[in-house]
């Protein structure tokens, strides 16, 4: 199992890695992600697993007959954020294949079909909709809406993937009643608990919001400061206000993406579009946080002579993972820590769709994620594989 895990990890390590930053660029339907999808099929074939793909690009490699309901699913995703880390997503897929190997070493033959999944566009790094593949797989997002999503170059999703000809939904997950996803932890809780593996309890509510700030283009030199209608000033004040509100309430608010028009060094901009990522420990707290930031933006816009419009692009409520499943797994794994996460996952989409879902976390010694500095120790990864195999042993018998 150790050799198999390390060999798979070594195969993935160079794919999509930037020689400058050491981070990963594995955006959906670009060359690196397509190479990973080919790798997935090769790993499935080497194990005699049968791969199914739905019209949206989601993949599942099945072990055992899929004729009956009660199927068990594990896996994660292969795509990354821009300049992301190595472990976010791929660790879950590699660990799932390694867990299949370990089950076979233990002489376990599933009485329920077991699938290894690779959901597409989990990060939303290309088409701006997080967990898009799993949303389409369960019917939480309509194809008619999703196919109009465009990337930064203006390429529509419908131009990249054909989708169902008649608008039908994916049938890839039909009969699946249980899903267990292993993921690198994206914080420091397991460091604080001094534990290699943990079980997730809930996903915080979170959303992405587009702030369109408009003003008037003007000359950077000849226009007096008091005569300007500068949306960049409105944005800057809003970003500072967002950080202030989030810190005061122990929530999360991040402006991480910006588009400026006309984007000239010697010109006052006419428009600034900024994307807010907001997360909170309850649905009410999230609504209050976003409203406080919107109100600050409106106040500064009035002062700056600009205008602001806020559009929610995707919002996910709190997800509570299946409590009996969570507690069974935590007990089976020897009372490992049970903790919430502030990051969104495909697991949350499947839980909300009525599939009993659990998540396992593997310790991240850096506590850093969505960054080249994201990390995990091999010993902890192997402990994660053992934990996943233990969980699946109970579920597939």
What does the model show?
There is one protein chain. 35% of the residues lie in helices and 23% in strands. The longest helix has 22 residues, at 283-304. The mean pLDDT is 96. It has 12 helices and 15 strands. It is α/β, with parallel strands linked by helices. It folds into 2 domains: 2-204 and 318-396, Zn peptidases (Aminopeptidase), CATH 3.40.630.10; 206-316, Alpha-Beta Plaits, CATH 3.30.70. The strands form 3 sheets. Strands 1, 2, 3, 4, 5, 6, 13, 14 and 15 form a 9-stranded mixed β-sheet that branches. The chain has a 4-stranded antiparallel β-sheet with strand order 9-11-7-12, with helices on one face. Strands 8-10 form a two-stranded antiparallel ribbon.
Structural class: alpha/beta
β-strand percent reads 15-25%
Could you report the average pLDDT, rounded to the nearest whole number?
A: 96
Can you count the beta strands?
15
Order of helices and strands: HHEEEHEHHHEHEEEHEEEHEEHEHEH
Return the CATH class of the largest domain: Alpha Beta
CATH homologous superfamily annotation of the largest domain:
Zn peptidases
* N- to C-terminal distance: 21 Å
Low-confidence parts, pLDDT < 50 over ≥5 residues? none
Instruction: Identify the CATH architecture of the largest domain.
Output: 3-Layer(aba) Sandwich
Shape: globular
Classify the fold: give the CATH topology of the largest domain. Aminopeptidase
Rg estimate, integer Å:
22 Å
